[in-house]
Amino acid sequence: ELERHPSNVFLDLLPHDNTDDPLLAITCQTIVMGVERELANGEPVATLEAIFEHTRGCNIDDAEADEALDHLLTNGLLLEIDDDCFILLPS
Question: What kind and span of H or E run contains 85?
Answer without folding.
Answer: strand 85-88
